[in-house]
Amino acid sequence: MDQDMKDSIMGALEQVIDPELGVDIVNLGLVYDVEMSEEGFTVVTMTLTSMGCPMGPQIVDMVKHALYELPEVSEVDVKIVWQPVWGKDKMSRYAKMALGVR
């Protein structure tokens, strides 16, 4: 996957807003990796802000919906991982400012 395609995927994922925090999953630092095969099979490795996050299934659906907007994407697999553990240090400067985190 070239950098332009990776940028397109990350751009699509920036449209996915965490319903509880009101900031997108990319700026929150929840997306750890994206991969895409020649056939357009796309794997998103991500985490959630907490293990018991009630919005998990909804966020996964939103990720799939956002990526299916890209014509190059044929199938999406979202892998939720708990390592490395998510923390405020993974958030972008924008997300920290938006949430008032220091």
TrEMBL record:
Any Pfam family hit: FeS_assembly_P
Superkingdom of origin: Bacteria
Start and end residues of each MIP18 family-like domain: 6-78
PANTHER family reported for this sequence: FE-S PROTEIN MATURATION AUXILIARY FACTOR YITW (PTHR42831)
Descriptive protein name: Metal-sulfur cluster assembly factor
Highest classification ranks of the organism: Bacteria, Bacillati, Bacillota, Bacilli, Bacillales
